[in-house]
Design brief:
Layout lengths: L1 E5 L4 H12 L5 E4 L12 H6 L7 E4 L2 E4 L1 H11 L10 H17 L6 H9 L5 H23 L14 H15 L8 H11 L2 H6 L9
Parallel strand pairs: 1-2
Antiparallel strand pairs: 1-3, 3-4
Helix pairs in contact: 1-3, 1-7, 4-6, 4-7, 7-8
């Protein structure tokens, strides 16, 4: 019933994998390698699935939806068990705020296609693009740490696992890849460690995906 077009290292795909495993939904994993063969996301067959050429994309009995926020919201509506968005409007808004800090304020600035454009089109050295990514991740984490100071418990929203945690853990994984010390942000680091203990998150981790070899 569910097919997920994913890349093991994509933080956006990681978010959706967590959501699927959290809801205990079986799905077919279809790898789209973002760097092999010039980037499989650029090939015509995948552009028919998602014209933006982004992963993840979800196929639910022929219904296609892409972008991780839209996919997770859709899954929460269609499969309401183990919800990822709170019923309280205030709590839902807070979860969306945390998600969007990552989704629009951090991750796009360290996206693969941004880094490739800086190097190939703007002539920016690769070590400088890493510095660019580190800068925006740190700035985003500084803001996120302040918000979590008033919302966090075991997870981003008290003791309730939500979509915010689905977004935070993959961003921490990406941060470490770019040399950012997550431990410099104690609340973020504490939540990340707690969430990583969950079986659903273990199953979703990049190294546990079939295309990670």
């Amino acid at each position: 019933m569910l097919k997920l077009y994913s890349y093991f290292r994509s933080s956006a795909s990681y978010r959706v994998r967590i959501a699927l495993h959290w809801k205990e939904l079986p799905f077919e994993y279809i790898p789209i390698h973002l760097t092999r063969n010039g980037g499989e996301q650029h090939q015509a067959h995948f552009r028919k699935i998602n014209p933006m050429g982004h992963v993840p994309a979800l196929d639910h009995n022929g219904f296609l939806v892409s972008e991780s926020m839209a996919i997770i919201d859709y899954l929460d509506q269609v499969y309401p068990q183990r919800p990822l968005f709170p019923q309280s409007l205030a709590d839902r808004a807070r979860v969306l705020q945390i998600c969007e800090i990552i989704n629009s304020g951090i991750q796009p600035l360290q996206n693969l296609k941004v880094g490739q454009f800086l190097v190939r089109e703007m002539g920016v050295p690769e070590d400088a693009t890493d510095k660019w990514c580190q800068h925006w991740i740190i700035k985003g984490f500084e803001s996120l740490e302040k918000i979590l100071a008033s919302t966090a418990g075991t997870y981003c929203l008290g003791g309730e696992f939500t979509a915010a945690d689905c977004f935070l853990v993959p961003q921490c994984h990406s941060a470490r890849r770019f040399g950012v010390k997550v431990e410099d942000f104690p609340i973020i680091a504490r939540i990340d460690a707690a969430v990583l203990e969950l079986p659903a998150v273990q199953a979703a981790r990049p190294g546990n995906q079939p295309d990670s070899v």
